Amino acid sequence: MNKIIEIKNLYVAYDDNLVLENINLDIYEKDFIAILGPNGGGKSTLLKALLGLLQIKTGSIKIYGKRPNESRNLFGYVPQENKFDWQFPISVIDVILSGRLKFKKNFNFFYSKNDFEIAEELLKKFGLLDWKNKHISELSGGQKKRVFICRALATESDILLLDEPTAELDAHIENCIYDFLKELNSKKTIILVTHDIGIISGYVSKVCCLNKKLFYHHSGKITGEMLQNAYHCPVDLIAHGNLPHRVLGDH
Amino acid sequence: MPEIFQFEFIRNSIIAVILLSITCGIIGSYIVVRRMVFISDAIAHTVFGGIGIAHYFGFNIFAGAFVFGILAMIILELIIRYIKERRDSIIGIMLASGMAIGIIFIYLTPGYSTDLFSYLFGNILLITQNELIHIALLNIILLIFFVVYFNVLRAIAFDNDFAVVLKLPVQNINFAMTIFITIAIILSIKAVGIILVIALLTIPPSIASFFFNDLKKIIITSICLGILFGCCGLYFSYNFDLPTGAVIILISVCFYLISLIFKKIKQKFAFHKIQ
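ok -> structure tokens follow
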């Protein structure tokens, strides 16, 4: 398998506060990798570093051999929702179409017929076609999440980057989202971060735990040791919903 | 022709109302949906420092105000980026400093009092042909910019980070918008003055956003509302001999309150229908 992302000896600090310490991680094509960790453990910082949205102190990140600010448009980015202004006047289809702006240049930022077809195709696939012209605030939490996944897919990127894809969703919708992601994984590399440990293991191929340092196990299993390292305390390893308990490994 | 149209200054004022409504409809909608009202108000107050300095040294007033406004925005960005103080506190201090500098320099200039009042409260009846041409030029550039970059502007305003990830020209466009906002404010100060200019920019889009959830519709509605309020304001201020700028703003505020009540009633009605 091709190595597409290589993180080496990465340190990131905000002022004097070290947030990421000596991170080493290789990500291969068609990986489905979950980065778990407590709030404030540096998960979003790691994503921002991958996207070249912040300054790296030392170490390097290479994406297809290039630096993040050169290659950031290779990612389909699905951000956390709590930062959005839901009163902003934008419709569902316009949110998805904005992903198509990646392909626009030379003062031509108008959407083509092809762009509309792609957006509608995605809406249909994710069961949102009836909501096409609705204002974004009229959607439920799970629907909004799907809209942002559609927007990321509209960029036709090979790597999907998801920040807390299931935060504040109930277990059933959570599982639906992971089913979607699993299906997408046959064509795309997926990287997601979440603080919710009671999920995902049945779906992902690799898990690592992040709390300033990265604890990595080269498999889809979460071990009690990894979690204890990351969370600094014994963590309850019981999944909810219909997620299988067994994937959590021996503990 | 009715008596009111006989005077050239009335005709100029009507043209000014229409042109400024276009400017403020576009810029105002942008600052309202991006929640930049406070910072825009700060620009309006800060440029007064530039007006004062230009006045004292005999420079072009517009150039003084523009350079001062842009410099203040750049300094603000740098302070926020490198010193990480609270944003709103810095903005508040900055606008006060601009006002203070302006007041001192205008005080030092002989014959200060009338000029001070004309900048603080404006007078649309005194607008010159030259100023009308400036506003018209700004409108043409603004319209072209908004037509070409509309999808990009909306994407940036909704989700700045995502636009950066797509490698869209986010910084350049944000900077261009700061320049447009500053120029639009300076040109509108002539009509309603520093103190009221933010109302001229924000009331029509706020009303429009009660009824529409689409940025294009909000902009078009704001322009129409601006023209309506401006013409009503001119008519009443002419007939009752009142300051035009203040009358325009008061009419806008009345419409705002009526729309607010109307919206609440509509919501309640819709809620009952669901039940």
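Residues 3-85+158-248 of chain A form a domain with the Rossmann fold fold (CATH 3.40.50.300).
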